[in-house]
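Sample pair:
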Amino acid sequence: MTVYIDPPTWPGHGRLWSHLVSDVSYDELHLFAEELGVPRRAFERDHYDIPSHRYAAAVAAGAVEVRSREVVRLLTAAGLRRPKGRAL
């Protein structure tokens, strides 16, 4: 299982966030998030939003650190990208 996480640089709700993604399947992503203790409500279309204080735990659990652009590239290449404004 390989999931990826970008640096916590995305502002929202008074904190910084990372994006946690899979390049294989949503099932793989949901399983990793569940094992990490991330609630399902943190899933947004094609990724999980991870607050900065949980970043190190995600990496320690096996998430591979990548740049934000790489997150989009991985999702797109896997056919898992679901941009906002498009029907699911």
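The mean pLDDT is 92.
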